[in-house]
Amino acid sequence: MTADVENAISVTGLTKRFSGRTVVDDFDMQVPKGAIYGFLGPNGSGKTTTIRMMCGLLTPDAGQGACLGYDILTEQAKIKARVGYMTQKFSLYEDLTIRENLDFIARMFAVPDRRSRVTETLADLGLTDRAGQLAGTLSGGWKQRLALAACMIHDPQLLLLDEPTAGVDPKARRDFWDEIRKLSAAGVTVLVSTHYMDEAIQCDFIAYIAYGKKLISGVAAEIPKMIGLSTYRVTGPDITALETRLRAEDAVAQVARFGAVLHVSGTDAAALDALAARMKGPQKWERKEAELEEAFIYLMSGAADNFSGAAA
Ligand SMILES: Nc1ncnc2c1ncn2[C@@H]1O[C@H](COP(=O)(O)OP(=O)(O)OP(=O)(O)O)[C@@H](O)[C@H]1O
Questions:
Q1: Which domains does the chain have, with CATH numbers?
Q2: Could you report the predicted ipTM of this complex, rounded to two decimals?
Q3: Which of 117, 208, 228, 305 lies 20 to 30 Å (CA to CA) from residue 95?
Q4: Average predicted confidence (pLDDT) for the chain
């Protein structure tokens, strides 16, 4: 057992090769206990492989570290017993009832007082009356709540979420994140792998991974500053034509449109200021603090699948 009271996870030099190809390269990371940590990056960039190594679910070819106080190389079973994993796909049995599904998972994790824990979970979910219903007949939002409850049934200290709200309606999505916030406040550490901005902005910390390398990581609110993005908010007439013109400007790294408003960002503040001064007139240009939304769009804009391009 390694003593690390502050961090739920602390790893250095994690490296993984598949068929001679390095898919995760020298990855270091600390995840504070109770944090919601988002992993962003293109398809195939190594997010899942990284997360699995950090949690002792996959053995790295190089590197070391601790997860929940246990060595990721030698104490994997102890870590696994304390991890809840919610995959993107509904992974419960559609032709078992809601109660049977919870009971099955509780049995798998050898949950003490299994029956009462299942009954309690059903009550917490508000599904006591529907305990005998087949899980496959639930709506998407309810399936997701059930899946979350199932992967929390053994009181894990670490929760892994893989694009958790893909395909779920906005209300269910908000409820889901409320639930995740409560778990995080209670000390559960949450790792989220996602491509979606509305999942990314729920995270306290963000790591951006491309081609198996961590390109940026830190407190979510500080990511725009780390990238060095400057942003202007532009409103006024002929926004669509302006958008096209701006995309051709060297000073402009990206133009994000929010209804009738353009957020124009660049990494060279002086060049962007000069452009704003030149363009001012029909449209109003106001400097604004770059936010995580802009940073997310900027980071993900190069998000062609990994290993398909020249940089692979
Ligand atoms: N068991 C495996 N054997 C061989 N190659 C693998 C294996 N697991 C992952 N890979 C490859 O490693 C690379 C990284 O995969 P990984 O699933 O970690 O990426 P990801 O960023 O999570 O992708 P996505 O966002 O699509 O889930 C990919 O090229 C993938 O094909």
A1: 7-223 (3.40.50.300), 230-289 (3.30.70)
A2: 0.96
A3: 117
A4: 89
